[in-house]
Design brief:
Elements (H helix, E strand, L loop, with lengths): L1 H26 L6 H8 L3 H7 L3 H23 L7 H17 L1 H12 L9 H8 L6 H14 L9 H20 L7 H16 L4
Helix pairs in contact: 1-2, 1-6, 2-3, 4-5, 5-6, 5-8, 5-9, 5-10, 8-9, 9-10
């Protein structure tokens, strides 16, 4: 019986998260209330509060789920040897293609990009946690990969790993947004792959 209750609670949490993501993406994080989320699910506001104590808690859980998915992708990559810039770049290309083909992935991307006022005081803790996350996430993966490439002599010793990571993420971010907005008329995977190849050719150590 206890196991059944736990399973039901997890299903309810999943439904709440899906409802919140959809509403955050459509109405904006600021303009979505617990009442909106509950009404969409035909639940009481109190029932939503029972699972999540605040909107910030809902947002943090959505972010953590996205990071967990990336972490699993990274763990699948790691058994094949040391982390390198080309390997992380290839994974990020595949990640981009999966995201634009998945409505939930696209909704999450739009939420993070367009529907949250990160400058608001209420977002300070969430923003701080995101920026301080050094255990997982694409930015850290690129940093670690470039540092490994430098240590192994694959990349030039004067390369700034932080700068490369920032540029790599900015490229991914911009091209994915362009694809979602239908401004990118070329193949997303091929275009992003060529951009990462150009970065690698710039930072790799000449033999």
């Amino acid at each position: 019986m206890a196991r059944k209750r736990k399973e039901d609670a997890e299903k309810t949490r999943t439904r709440i998260l899906a409802s919140a993501l959809s509403l955050f993406a459509k109405k904006g994080y600021e303009h979505t209330t617990f009442t909106d989320i509950a009404a969409r699910l035909k639940m009481t506001k109190g029932a939503v509060y029972w699972h999540f104590e605040s909107k910030e808690a809902l947002l943090v859980e959505l972010v953590n789920l996205a990071l967990d998915k990336f972490r699993r992708q990274l763990e699948e990559l790691m058994p094949h040897g040391e982390l390198t810039f080309p390997k992380v770049a290839d994974m990020m290309v595949r990640n981009a293609m999966q995201l634009v083909e998945d409505p939930k992935g696209t909704a999450f991307f739009q939420l993070m990009k367009c529907q949250i006022k990160w400058s608001d005081a209420s977002m300070a803790k969430v923003r701080e946690d995101l920026l301080a996350n050094t255990q997982s996430g694409p930015m850290q993966a690129f940093r670690d990969a470039v540092k490994a490439d430098i240590a192994a002599g694959r990349a030039r010793p004067d390369v700034d790993a932080e700068e490369v990571a920032i540029v790599a993420i900015a490229l991914w971010d911009g091209l994915v947004q362009s694809r979602i907005d239908h401004f990118l008329v070329r193949d997303l995977g091929q275009t992003l792959g060529h951009a990462y190849e150009a970065i690698w050719n710039r930072i790799k150590k000449e033999k």
